[in-house]
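Annotated sample (chain length 608).
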Amino acid sequence: MSYTKFVAALVRKNSGNFNIIRVSPGRYRSTVASTKSNEEKEQQIDGCTVVETEPLELISHKTKNVTKTQVDKIHIDFDNTQEAYKSKDNVELLRSLLVFKLCTIDVLVEKNKELMDLSKKLLGQWMFDKLMKMTFYGQFVAGENHNSIKPLIQKNQAFGVGAVLDYSVEEDLTQEEAEKKEMDSCVSEAEKESPDTDHRERKYKAHRQFGDRRGGVISARTYFYADEAKCDNQMETFINCIKASGGSSADGFSAIKMTALGRPQFLLQFSEVLVKWRRFFNFLAAQQGKSEMMVLEQKLELEQLKESLTKMGVGDKDDIENWFTGEKLGLSGTIDLLDWNSLINDTTKISNLLMVPNVETGQLEPLLNMFTAEEERQMKRMLQRVDVLAKHAMENGVRLMVDAEQTYFQPAISRLTLEMQRKFNREKPIIFNTYQCYLKEAYDNVTVDVELSRREGWYFGAKLVRGAYMYQERARAKEIGYEDPINPDYEATNRMYHKCLEYVLEEIEHSRKANIMVATHNEDTVKFTLQKMNEMGLSPTENKVYFGQLLGMCDQISFPLGMLHAARMLKVNRTIWNHRGLHHTVMWPLKGSTYRRQLFHSQPATDL
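Output written by the structure step:
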């Protein structure tokens, strides 16, 4: 059953309720998983100039098949501080001690921006820069350009620590400027002209008091939409990063954020659509008495489903019969969530993607009363940029990690990433999705995506994190009035992380077609992973499991893992080009905006 047929039938049934928006044809990537695999021509973005960069020396490795009987047990002593800090001299150790001691002083952390501004006034720019390089900059940042980061990368490689390059650009905006940009880019023309007349939920609408998405976020960079030219520039920097990562390594890493690549209005709208369609599936599952089952165990009986849809008045019997026909759909006599998701296929128009079911009536309704041609073009350009980056990653032999963001963006981000995985992960895992384990729905999301990869035969790639937006998410949910998406406490998040991790490790054990990045500073989680690898016979030399830590944040974990590489395993160290923190002098102007100095900031990602 295609989504197009489904929409067309519902439109005929409810033709008096809304207007169909005509969309001019255009090429774009599908944003929801389908059961088909289509080859598409590469999208080109006008005005996008790829900046050539000097390649970094990264670790190259090949995948090997290792049977359980050939695998030696992994053992690391994280209490051996002499070995853990073997790479550091006395000055570096004293610097680390000073920096971490200063980080325990709450007022310094909470008022860091004000204190840095004051220090610059008192010391002058040159002395301030010198002081930062001797302390915080030297601890957490690798350098200012390609040449300056090489000594640190080469030194780390000697201890089994490699690098993954991630280019980050973040504007130096005031809170008021950030809020204005967010409201301008997240509110559609329809909402501006006729507020509160559409079918939007408050969670998926922009709210000025939470417009500055940097609030309460420490470790995640934030992008604000200005115009399409800026998105093109940010795509170029990601391409630059991909080329640098792949320049001297067969398997480099790079990372991107979807909010850097287009207008966030689309992510908000499409996230709401996906959530409402899933909610409609849950509503139909409840009608069949299956609401208490695990998500993948909810299989709707096809005949009962047809009967329910008929009673709800969403189509006549012949129409409904035609909806649930196809090469794979409904042949088993049941429909599960993955079948349901495949109703939106890669021929669906973007305007049709913004049609949502009303759970109470079963009728289809437009998410917006109006959808402009320019908004249509902006959506297409975002999809094109994502596709271009994925193709560059594949061509350069680089694995592309798509960072997770706020929950009101994340459903759309995950679907876009899933679509890239379906296309580019056919022979090996190129695209990695990020799963935030502080979310209540994390395990369901992981299991559904793994199951889809099994059915369609592509390689699953995941990065597991606990999450960076907890305080912001909880405050927003409470203020706006929707369910808190975060697990109730830290222990619940730990259990969720380990549950998701074990599930993916079991998938690696059974099929060897999955890869995982265990992004954590938690020593217990690292030990848990190593224990499970020993139990499952997963060899580090297979390069299926990776660990990630921020540079300078957790050397007592990073370097013991890295030094184990000297004998038999790899470690990948994630390097960030960061504009966020320590300097504000202009590196280059983009569309009149002032950016902080380009900083190279290293974030270890341990590769097992």
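Annotation: Residues 264-287 form the longest helix (24 residues).
Annotation: The longest strand covers residues 572-578.
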